TrEMBL record:
Transmembrane segments: none
Pfam name, any one: ABC_tran
Organism placement in taxonomy: Bacteria, Bacillati, Actinomycetota, Actinomycetes, Mycobacteriales
Organism of origin: Rhodococcus wratislaviensis NBRC 100605
GO molecular function per UniProt: ATP binding; ATP hydrolysis activity
InterPro entries xrefs: AAA+_ATPase, ABC_carbohydrate_import_ATPase, ABC_transporter-like_ATP-bd, ABC_transporter-like_CS, P-loop_NTPase
Name of the protein: Putative ABC transporter ATP-binding protein
Amino acid sequence: MSTPALHLTGIGKSFGDVRALHGVDLSVLPGTVHCILGENGAGKSTLCNVVYGGLRPDTGTMTLSGRRYAPGSPAAAMADGVAMVHQHFSLIGTMTVAENLLLTGLGLRLRRAELRTRLDRLADDYHLRIDPDALVSAMPIGARQKVEIVKALLTDPSLILLDEPTGVLDPDEIDALIETCQAVAAAGKAVVLVTHKLGEVARVADAATVLRGGEVAGGGRMSELTIPQLTTAMVGRPVSELSPVLAAGVGTESDGGAMPDRRATGRVVLGLRDVRATRADGSVALSGVGFEVRAGEIVGIAGVEGNGQSELVAVLSGATTPESGTVTLGDADITSASPAERTRLGLGVVPEDRHREAMVAELSLSENLFLGRLHHFRRMGLLDRRRMDAAARDLIEQFSVRTPGPGTSMGSLSGGNQQKVVLARELSTENLQCLVAAQPTRGLDIGAVEFVLNQLRSCASSGNAVLVVSSEIPELLALCDRIFVSYRGALLGPVDASAGTARQHVGELMTGTAA
């Protein structure tokens, strides 16, 4: 057996009374891809940050290639050959890709021409081509994630930690990233990949470790494990108790078991007619888009990122006003309405990028839950925090948010729990008529995905219209009544999600190969 690239013994970490990690043992061999699995809040990101020097463990020891390893900072970890791609982006939006990369420790020693040469080499080796002159703020979320990965690879690390890197990538980009991980491992380096998608684990992992409640709950070599065993270790219950789409493994090629056909005959709640919009660079984002969503109906929009889905959600939320066309909610024309007015009329929106658009990390969970509704908790001109926290506790329990309490800062929660808070806020919108959910399960573990899908189904069953924008085709097939495909600014379809050929038809529309 070769010396482990990374070996952890008895790692523990607590934050006050909250125990994030307890007695974690882990060995990662060079030349392998080691996946770390677990529900949101299981301690995966905390473990990665301990290894990367962002956090110091309370107990335990670490070795790197056989020598003692105790980085006091991320800079020290980088100097030792450890790189990390964080779940949350660290790019500066007002700068170009090249300028961001030149800010890295390695970048400061590179000239621009040398940087471009290095980027071309990485693109050839790892299939991650990026535009160094692109302004980060104008890039779609998937492209920004690729820049983060390239930034880590620029340092030529011997160990690379990837914390949920595929959560914002489209299927082709995920395929490319898996090839990247395999190529890095083939070069003798070690890759630690944190992911919730069991289909990815089956494709790329040499070994896996499951965390539950901050402790190791299972794992080993993938040749000796099955996906159902990993799922059971993650959620603490037999896989057979999960819904068909999740039992098959979200992100796999399973059709997922479509829901019973519910052909909505209710009134039109959300309507778009001939909506057109352009991007900041003048390119066409939406070209004559029109569709309807009826009460009790779930409509899905699929598509490879960059085909107009983000701009469509921006138009629906009120963040962008279309150049032409109309948007209606019930009997109201909301084409030019403000986001606040749309909320008042009963529109809930879950944005695709929760950190930039759906939450304020520095505020408490309670404050985030009632953003825009703080006036309900005013008393004699002051905010009645006790009453607001009491209302927050009810939603915390209803949506199974794992948190010490409503006063906890939103930024300290795991990604899945942050998403549950956003979903709780939007689903509790007064007079809710329609919910627009963009990438609602992005970055969530299998248990949280199941919870979110059930909440969306329940929302529709209550008579609301639901529009789901997602790159997860198995989820859309299991959830929706009809599916449109966003392709080059137009909406193609719809496809009947209950049809036996639905997956093939959606795939053809996404790639522009449909007859």
